[in-house]
Amino acid sequence: VIAKLACQFKSRALGVGTPILLIAVLASGCETDSYPEDLVYPPRTDQLVVDKPKQDAQRFDRPGDFPRVLFPDLEESDRKKLLADPGKMNTELHGELNKLLVDLFGKPARPAVDFFFFREKDLKDLEKHGIPAPVVSKLKPLKDQIFTAEKAFLDAATKLLTEEEARLHQTELLARARVLPTLDRETLRLGSTIYRHQCLHCHGLSGDGRGATAPWVNPHPRDYRQGIFKFTSSKQEEGERKPRKEDLVRTITEGIEGTSMPSFRLLPDEQIGALASYVIHLSLRGETEFAVIRGDFEGKLDDSLSPPERVRSAAEESLTNYAGRWRDAQDVDKNLIQPTRTRVEQGTTDKERKAFLDSAVRGWDLFRKQGDAGCISCHTDYGRQAAYKYDAWGTVVRPADLTTGVFRGGRRPIDLFWRIHSGINGTGMTAFGKKAPDQQGGMTDSQIWDIVNFLQVLPFPAMHGEIKLENPEETAAGEKAGAQ
Amino acid sequence: VRKFWSILFGVTMLGAFLLFALAPAMGWSLPKNVATFGGDVDNLYYLILAITGFFFVLTEAILVYALWRFDGSRENKAHYIHGHHTLEVVWTLIPGVILLVLAIVQIRVWAEIKFQKNMPKPDGKTQQIEVTARQWEWRIRYPNRARMEEWEKHPDTALDFGKNPHIDDVLLANEIHVWKGGSEPEQRHNVLVHLRTLDVIHSFFLPNLRLKQDALPGKVIPVWFAVTEHNTERDSKIGRWVEINYDPATGKARDPSLPVPIWELACAEYCGTRHSMMRGRLFVHKDKDDFKEWLKWAEDEQNRSKAVAAR
To answer: Fewer Cβ in 10 A, N or C end of chain B?
Structure first.
C-alpha cells in the first residue's frame, strides 16, 4: 500500500511539477547585464610588487602557478624583499582605506571617479574649450583645490560665478574638472557593463589581471592596479607615463597579436570608448590603493592626523598626482610623440624601393652594433633566443622574437616607432629616442625609422637577399662572439 | 488524471507544430541567403526537413494516440512483438532507402562546394584571402592593391598567396571584405579562402552563405564562395565602410524601421571559454572599385607613419 501511495504521489508531483518548472524557467528570463548593486570591489589581498630583481628569469611560470607564485625562480628570501603583503597593513587604516575607496570610486554597478580639481594649466586650457576668459578668471580661486564630490565642486564653482554663467557652463566645467572629460558616471556605467561581459573573465573584477582564465594564459592578463600600461604614445618621463586614451582604444580595437587578448573591432565605438574609460577608472582606483598601502609600509603617512584623515590625505595626494599624469598624457600639443622626420617608405618605383632597403640596412647596423641601439643585446638572435626577464608585475616576459612578424604593440610603422622611441612601460624595453632634439644620447628620429624599416623587412626571408641579410643566424652568432 | 500524460504530450506537440508554422513569419527561420550555392543548400535543407518532419509528426501522433488509448484503464496485458521479422525489415529498409536517396541527391551540391577540383583557381580574377583562426578571433590577410594588379597581369604569380605572405599584405581582425558578383557562372566573383588555425580546431561558419568548414591545426584548407548581394557602403561622415543603415557609434540601426544587414562570421566548433564571442562580420562591397577604395584605406591605415587621433 505504501509503495503504491509513493508511486501515485511521485507521478502526481511530476505531472504538476514539470509544467510549473517549465513556466518558471521561461518567466525568469535572462538576468540583467550589469553587476549586482550590492557588489563591492574586493580589497587588495595579493602581494604588492615593490621592486624588480636584478637577475634574469630562467623560464616562464608553469601554467596554473600564477598568481600564487610571482617571481617564480627566486629564493623565498629574495622574493620577500620584492613583495609586500597588504594583509600586514594596520587593520584600522586598511578599513578606512576600503571605506574611502568606495567613496571615491563607487561600486562595480555604479562606478565613479568622484574627484574634481583644476591645476593652473587646466584653468588656462578652459578657454580652449569654449569657456569665456572672464569666467575663467573668476574661477581662479579654485586652483589646486580638490573636491571629492560632484556637488561640492559645483557649489564652490557656482559661488564664484553669476547664476547664468554657472548654468551655462556647468556641463563643460564638470567635464573639465574631472580627471578626464569621459570619466562621467554614465560612460563608466556603460563601461562596467561591457567590461563584465567581455573582460571580467581574464582581467578580474577590480582589474587585477587575476580573472578565472588568468593562470592559464601567457602572457597573463594586464593588472591595471599598478597604473602601468605597456603601449603608449605619450612623451612623459619613464615611470610617470600614462597612455593616451587613443592608445587604450587601439589596444581594445585591434587586440594584441601573439597574446590571448583578442580584437574587439566590431563592438560599437561608444562601447569601446566606455571600456577605455572604465579601465582608467580601475587603474586610478588600484593605483591609489597601492600607493596608500605602500605609504603605510614605508612610514610615509602623516602620523599627526587621525586614521581616517591620514588615509584620506595620502589617497588624495596620490590621486591628484596620478590624475594629473593622465590629464597631461592626453595633451596632444605637448605630450603626443610625433616623429619629426618622415619615414622612408617602400614606394612604387625602383628608386624609392632602393631608398627603403638602404634605410633597412642602416637599421640593421644599428640593431646589431653595441653602443648604438644595440637591440641585439636583449633581442638575442633577433629575439629567437632572447632571455627570460621579469617585468613590473612580477611575471616573466621575453624580449620579442622579431622574426615572426608578430608585433604586440601593433604593426603600423608609427606603433614600432613609439615602442622604440619611448620603450615599453614596465618591462626592460627602455626608451631609445630623444625626448628633445638637443638631448645628448638617444637615437634621432631618422635612426628610429631605419630600425623600423629593418623590423618590417626582417620577418620576410624573401627580402633578406635584397639587403644581404642572407644568414641572420651566423651574423647573430658572430656578433655575440664579438661582444664577448 | 489517467489521460493526463497523453494530454500533456499532445498539447506540447501541438504547441511545437504551431511554433514551427509561425517561425518564418516571426523571422526565426533561416537568415537571408546571399551566396550563389546557398539556394541549393537550402533546397536540400527543406527536403530533409520535409522528410524528417513527416516522420516526426507521424511517430508523435502514434505515440500520443497510444498514450491516450492504452492509459491503463483497461485490464488487458500488453503483448510483445520482439523478433517480428517483417516489422524489423520494414523499419530498417525505409530509413535505409531514404538515406540512400538523400546521399545521391546531395552529391552534386556537395561536389560543387567542397571538391577541390571544382574550386576557383588562384588566378588574376579570383579574390584570395587568408583567414587565420585563433582563440578567439579571426585574423584576415589581404593582398594589397599592387599585388592584386600583379595577379591580373601575370595570373601565375597568384599561386603563392597562401604560402608566401608579403611585407605589404594587409592584416585585419574579424572583418571579411569581398565584393559581389552576378549569379550566373560567368559573372560570378569568386573568393578563395585559405583557412588556417593557430591553436585548436575552429569552424569557419558564414550562415548567410550557408558555408561551414572546420579549420584544423597544421592544415591550410581551401574554401570558396561567391556572393550575389552587397551590404556595405562608405559612411562619408566618418570615412569608414560599414553595413548599410548601421551606425558604428552606437551599434544600432540608423533608421530603426529598416533592417541592418549584418552578416555574421561565427566559430561553429567549441574552442574554449570565449567561443561564443569569436565573431566576425562579412562586408560585401557593391563592386571591385568600392572594395579597392576600402583596401586603399586599410593599406594607408596599416602603413601609418604619423600620429593622428584614432577613432
So the answer is: N
A interface mutation test: which of B150, B304, B305, B308 has the most A CBs within 10 A?
A: B305
Kindly report the three-state secondary structure assignment for every residue of chain A: CHHHHHHHHHHHHHHHHHHHHHHHHHHHCCCCCCCCCCCCCCCCCCCEECCCCCCCECCCCCCCCCCCCCCCCCCHHHHHHHEECHHHCCHHHHHHHHHHHHHHHEECCEECCCCEEECHHHHHHHHHHCCCHHHHHHCHHHECCEECCHHHHHHHHHHHCCHHHHHHHHHHHHHHHCCCCCCCHHHHHHHHHHHHHHCHHHHCCCCCCCCCCHHHCCCCCCCHHHCCCCCCCECCCCCCCCCCHHHHHHHHHHCCCCCCCCCCCCCCHHHHHHHHHHHHHHHHHHHHHHHHHHHHHCCCCCCCCCHHHHHHHHHHHHHHHHHHHHHHHCCHHHHECCCCCCCCCCCCCHHHHHHHHHHHHHHHHHHHCCCCCCHHHCCHHHHCCCCEEECCCCCEECCCCCCCCCCCCCCCHHHHHHHHHHCCCCCCCCCCECCCCCCCCCECHHHHHHHHHHHHHCCCHHHHHHHCCCCHHHHHHHHHHHHC
> Which of B7, B137, B142 to substitute to test the interface with A, most A CBs within 10 Å?
B137
Amino acid at A14: L
pLDDT at B311 over 50: no
Residues of chain A with pLDDT below 50 are 1, 477-478, 481-484
Q: Is the pLDDT of residue B1 over 80?
A: no
Cβ atoms within 10 Å, residue A373 = 21
Q: How far is CA B85 from CA B82, B89, B91, B274, B288, in A?
A: 9, 6, 10, 51, 64
The vertex-B37 CA angle with B31 and B41, nearest 5°, equals: 60
Q: Check residue A13 and give its pLDDT.
A: 64
CB A395 within 8 A of CB A46: no
- Yes or no: say if A425 and A241 are a contact pair by the CB < 8 Å rule: yes
Using CA atoms, how far apart are residues A276 and A250, in angstroms rounded to an integer? Answer: 9
Q: How many residues are present in chain A?
A: 484
**Residue A292, φ and ψ in degrees, nearest 5:** -70, -45
What tens digit of pLDDT does each residue of B77-93 get?
777 778 889 989 998 99
Question: Distance between CA atoms of A127 and A118, rounded to whole angstroms?
Answer: 13
Q: Is A257 exposed, middle or buried (0-12, 13-18, 19+ CB in 10 A)?
A: buried
| pTM score, whole prediction | 0.89
Q: Which residues of chain A neighbour B281 with C-beta distances below 8 Å? A: 266
Alpha carbon distance A12, A444 (integer Å): 85
Cis before residue A437, ω within 30 degrees of 0? no
pLDDT score at A470: 52
Interchain proximity B250–A270, CB inside 8 Å: yes
- What lies within 8 Å, CB to CB, of A258 at 6+ separation is A404, A406, A407, A408
As a three-state string, the secondary structure of B22-35 is HHHHHCCCCCCCCE
The letter for the amino acid at B107 is I
All three cell numbers of A357, joined, read 632597403
Average pLDDT over residues B27-48: 91
Q: Say if the Cβ atoms of B249 and A414 lie within 8 Å.
A: no
Match 550590492 to its residue by C-alpha cell: A38
How far is the C-alpha of A48 from the C-alpha of A208, rounded, in Å? 11
Candidate from B1, B5, B305 with C-beta closest to A414 = B305
